[in-house]
Amino acid sequence: MIMETITKKNKMYLAGKWVLRENTMAICDPQDNRLIATVPAASTADMTFAIEEAKEGFRVCSELPTHERIAILHRAADWVDEHKEAYAATIASEGSKTIKEARKEVRRCVETLRISAEEARRLNGETIAFDQMPGSENRFGYYYRFPIGIIGAITPFNDPLNLVAHKVGPAIAAGNSIIVKPATSTPLSALMLAEAFDKAGLPAKILSVVTGNAIEIGEVLVTHPDVRMISFTGGLVTGKAIMQKAGLKKMSMELGSNSPVIVLNDADINDAVESNVSGAFWAAGQNCLGVQRIYVQKDVYEAFVARFVDKTKQYRVGNKFSEETDMGPMINEREAKRVETWVQEAVDRGGKLLCGGKRNGAFYEPTVMVDVPKDCRIVKEEVFGPVVTIFSVVDLEEAIRESNSVDFGLQAGIFSRDIDKVFHAVRKLDVGGVMVNDSSDYRIDAMPFGGVKGSGIGREGVKFALQEMTEPKVVCFRMSR
User: So what's the pLDDT on residue 9?
Assistant: First the structure.
């Protein structure tokens, strides 16, 4: 079946209507730079209009009965599921993911929307024992949660469908309106999600997907006083700039990471290698949870490194649409050149390349390094590319210390059969999540997701995003007797 989005590829979804603009932006496949679509380059007036319309959209959504919001979310999920191959093809075409990776993202999007529908019915408050305070014996009350208003969502290129769903699904479930500014390079998936909600019968003005230059239209969204929350997924530098500009509004910031994994002597080495190779090179390493640093206890270090390199060399890089491909290109050649520069800096300072380290256009080979100085950018900052560094450590304490040594703390992994050591690591690792006998890359869409330090503030994951997108209102009755 040919999706209607193919005929609407030049349109954006503005307050419930598909609109064209004279100014457009080209969307190209990073694999070969072929033009796959154009989208409107929205103006500041377009974004201002979306915000004005979203005021009415908020009123409409907040007054929708819960069962209607649930039904809309389920119908949108059904639409995505029924057209899943077209969604996967779009994700793979405009971004870095292979077709196999893209199909998994579509499945997760369907799950995210269905969880949103289920959590809508569980958005509850609780009664409060006001008589716990002397003099309040004749008072009774409770609190409930209410939607906050217009939410501005700014989404990245690396999960162009599911990360949009993680903002849109909870926002609608809670009764808010939402304006999405998708990544400039990957807006088509977000527009296709808007199509799903359009087909699902979402009333006009609740949702807008505004495409364009982030510098031009993003600032309007971030700074407008009627936008009550900004939900941003992206880089640390941009996140800090948004917080400085936004003014008095709620913030949810997922700002990436530099994820560590600890492998202890008693770990299943083959399992740890298998898990961490996937965790390091999924989506060409452009993954906020991607494995970047691995700390291996010295007794198993050499065996782990040898097996890890061997497994990495088997990783198949090539055409994203081939069922045999494990990894495609990075999002553009500029980013691949940046990774190339960081790796060369580490080599120049004594780091050793065990495999990879070569670039061909936007393709960068899966790369494994050892003996890298700890103050190199490839160790201290978020590489957001297919590069992993491996270090030998004496014991768990050293591994924890080194894991915590960077200004990020999203998720970490630990491989061990010793439950005491595992629980010690859980307590001491300064991160938002610890994956035991899994790489840092593991996630389901129902869990709380977010980090500490430079990895951001707030939590995503549908139930937890609903909490962020609502506020508690207290009600207290003073009884006459």
Answer: 62
